[in-house]
Design goal:
The protein has about 210 residues and is mainly alpha-helical. The chain has helices at about 1-15, 15-40, 45-60, 65-90, 95-120, 120-130, 135-160, 170-210. The protein has eight helices and no strands.
Amino acid sequence: MISKIHNLLAEHINKNRNTYLFLFLTFVTGVSAGAFTVNGLSSMQKTELTNYFQGFLELFENQRVDSNEILRISLIDNIRFVGIMWALGVTIIGIPLIYFFIGVRGFITGFTSGFIIDLMGFKGVIFTLFSIVPKEIIIIPCIIALGVNGVNFSLNIIRNRSDRRMSKESLKTSFLAYCLTTAFFSCFMFGGILVESYITPVCIRIITSKVL
């Protein structure tokens, strides 16, 4: 079973490698833009963000964090994002917006990591590696895969309109495959959500008490 899933994923990535490459570059561009934006913050903005971040660390150090509440919030946020990506995939004009949202997701990651590293230096690198990277390693590939899935289905709709020989049954089959693929990668995203909810808080608590 695992071998079959691996083969299907390898075939899917190889078939769509160009789209994966462009979406990955879009994400990386967003990360770079977010990191560089940190340098453009005014002293007042940096002070406000620093106070917010220090309050965040004090919360983890002094109070018990409700992982179930983090899970609930993370589920809502990610379900909303998956819903947006799914909806964009079933519209003809959705392709540029898919690239836009993945770029924005990269910007958020880059800005968050860049600000922490700029504020804390090497300690910020350690904090980022243990608090942000673990969940992103799981979630980001899934987000890019959802983007590829959406781009492919949008292109399929365009081809269906230009080629009258394609039947409605063919489009229905493609739509079902599109929904199943979305559900498949969403399940993998859930692993990242669990890491964010139950493992990341523990890592942050350890880092704040032992390293920071």
